[in-house]
Structures
1.
Amino acid sequence: MKSKNFFMQEAIKEAEKAKEKDEVPVGCVIVKNDKIISRAHNLTIRTNDPTAHAEILAIKKAAKKTNNYRLTNCDMYVTIEPCPMCAGALIWARIDRVFYGACDKKAGACGSVINITNNNKFNHTIKIESGILQKRCSKLIKNFFKEKRK
């Protein structure tokens, strides 16, 4: 069985692809039965699509691959805490668990700003674990925006 760090490393590789394209470096993988079934990185700028977050793109790919809009028994590894849009999509997709690296204190919807994923008013809640390779994930984002401000 592969470790959480292994899968987060794969998400970080995706984030680095986004950075190379001058996109906000967020990367994501979806795992089922200890295998990556989809991977994605942010493409909002390149596609002029505000919904082209890594999580949304990975969900779409996983749904297509499994031929099912329900991604039960799947886990997501993402370099930064999902935003409200992505957290909502995770609920609708029925993702079981989300592992993320860095907290997003401005838009995080898994506990930092709000907690959409564990709101009992929805018909699905998601187990969340944060801090997986947190320093590396945080450094990717911070360095990207530091460079942008120059």
2.
Amino acid sequence: MRQWVLSFPYQLRFLFASRPAIMGRVLGIVYRVIATHLIKKAGQTYATARTGAVTLIQRFGSALNLNIHFHMLFLDGVYVDHPDGTARFRWVKAPTSEELTRLAHTIAHRVGRFLERQGLLERDAESSYLASDAVDDDPMNQLLGHSITYRIAVGPQAGRKVFTLQTLPACEESLDDGVGKVAGFSLHAGVAARAHERQKLERLCRYISRPAVSEKRLSLTPNGNIRYQRS
């Protein structure tokens, strides 16, 4: 099994938070792009091979900022059908940085086309932006926008950047792993568990399914501020 993590530009995080049905359609696009990559890399077609994945949608980052991103556990290969009705698993090599960049480009292109057809994205000669109809007048949207960009939403310091501390990567992740980045889309696939590594797979499943602050304890200080302490 291999973990694929996809994050999105700020504007799409905002759109997905306010329109979850659209996010579900985008997830289908992302799955098909990665599944097609795995099948072709194994030298197969959709008629002869299959793969599969489980996706958990995380909505927050470690700073409790709104950051919708996909954690997908994909089979690290495909099942090839045989004439006698059996299927055999065929492992494929880990994606290279070049492949991740190409996949991120394909995902960005197809998601953009889909949102244009839905009337949610408009393009000009230089840039793309959300259509005016994509954003309603819900007062919650202002709070969502501030949370995405790490800014204080209300009070005398509204609009100011929040001071944050970046967390260290998980122990099983390597800083040398390739990442594909295109137009605000970021695709990472550097963590995998082989068939016999059951404990690692369990840790990976627990990691992607935990809440953003599951490894921290939240408590109040005497002056009423929230304090985070790793458990």
